[in-house]
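G., before I forget:
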Amino acid sequence: MKGFILSLRSEFYKSRKTLGFWGSIVLPLLIVGLVFIGYATHKFDANTTKMPGMMLWLGYVAIVTAIMGNLLLPFYVIFIAYSVNSIEHKADTWKTLFTLPIAKWWVYAAKYFYTLFLLFTCLFLFYGLLICTGNLLGILKPELHFADYSVAAYLGQLYLKLFLASLGILSIQFLLSLLWGDFLKPMGIGFLGLIAGWITLGVKWQYVYLIPYAHPNMVWANLQAATKTVKSKTIGAMPNFTIEIFTREVWVSLVFAAVIFVAGFFIVQRKSVK
Amino acid sequence: MVINTEGLSFTFGNQQVVKSVSLRVPAGSIYGFLGPNGAGKTTTIKLLLNLLRPESGSIHIFDQELQANREAILGQTGSLIEQPAIYAHMTGRENLKNRAMLLQVPTIRVNEMLALVQLTAAADKKAGRYSLGMKQRLGIALALLSNPKLLILDEPTNGLDPNGIIEMRELLIKLARDHGKTVFISSHMLAEINKMATHVGIIHQGKMMFQGSIEELEALNQPRVQIELAGKTDEATALLNANGYNIADAKTNNLFIAYQSKEQMGQINALLNQNGFIVYSITKVQKDLETLFLAITQKAGA
């Protein structure tokens, strides 16, 4: 276990000056920041100011989550999986890592979990920044009733589900980036997977839950359903939403992650001796 | 023995690249592991570092079986395989700090290593901007960081200029002589190894062709008498044979006989002159080490 912690610290030390690491921080800051500025500077009409807090929150969250869940998240996952592995490909350091007096399994596991950590950090920042900026809007623009409702629990569930639903793609992309040192192959395959996910989701294929690349989009569909429910409610009625986290697409995502995590270890061992 | 292998074999696909290699590397030695490119040196080194698992045979390092004691052995081993593995986006100092973190070595060692390989002035420059020689020196510093008892270096002088090669040689000699370290160094240049090694192993096409001390290697290199004649070498050969001199080799107008003494050379000269042979020159010759190396490796190819 000590080897795992040492390797994890080393992963942070190596990546702290790379785009992969800073992308995890800059991406949420940029997207939430732009949406916040848009809300803060926009002059809202009477219809919006009359809206209940819940509607405002869901609208605010939906703009960011639509961009992130539908489009940016899969690309971001493809990029960080590449970024973490390319450090070793570029320096040809796999064999050096495996001659350290640390079990090979811990060296590999630390790299995988560090990639997971970057994804978690990114989504956690999205969550935290959405809550903070939403509440800040409630203070800056009291005519918008953000303060009337707390979306924290719902949003936490939504982003946790988004994280779990992304693990399948992350694992596949991690494996592809282990196999190939260049960006184009994992990116190309990832892009094809995304298109397959979008099409099968669009035509409502019954087995779409088996395609990891469709999973983040399926989480976004949860949010859409919640928004529709709110619209059907009368003003003033504020239901508490909960999200079923462990749906079948999340289980499929977790199974993909577990199987590929183990398979990746055997692949990386072969890689080290080329 | 620090490294002791028995019948080590390894096959890539259907090509056996290491064939029953038995290495004996004594403690405190500089062991030159020689062979032409593609002889199986790097594969053997990868087997010694547990990057590959042997198909058959055993590996003992520090008298411990490698597979069962991998982490304990690697904790006392520093290595440099092929080109140095350096993170180009990090400075030289950061590369060392990162390794120090993984090896749980105090960071004071980082500065010591930078000074040892003369990279203190360039320590805060990105390693990607280092020259090949600087990268190689940083690779050595990384290998030495944990103060290992055994250093395994795969062609460490590749890409170094003559000064760099001399510095590297002096450093390795100092490490073995003053600090009791065992150095296992691979190379395809016998002349380079000859200047520092105490022991030599020669590998060719995966097979060990020679193993022993540098003195034992030199003992293989017996001097000979080269006789240059105006002609009639067949008759001269017959005459010398009849007088008890065995001809070791014959080339156009040149005969070679095993060297015994100066007196023997005089007697041969006199014998040939007295029998009407014109001798242009008679000289004591010794194969240079490169020729010896070629002779040993070509013997395998034959």
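Chain A touches chain B at residues 6-7, 9-10, 13-14, 17-18, 87, 90-93, 95-96, 98-103, 272-273 (CB under 8 Å). The first helix of chain A runs from residue 2 to 15.

More on Monday.
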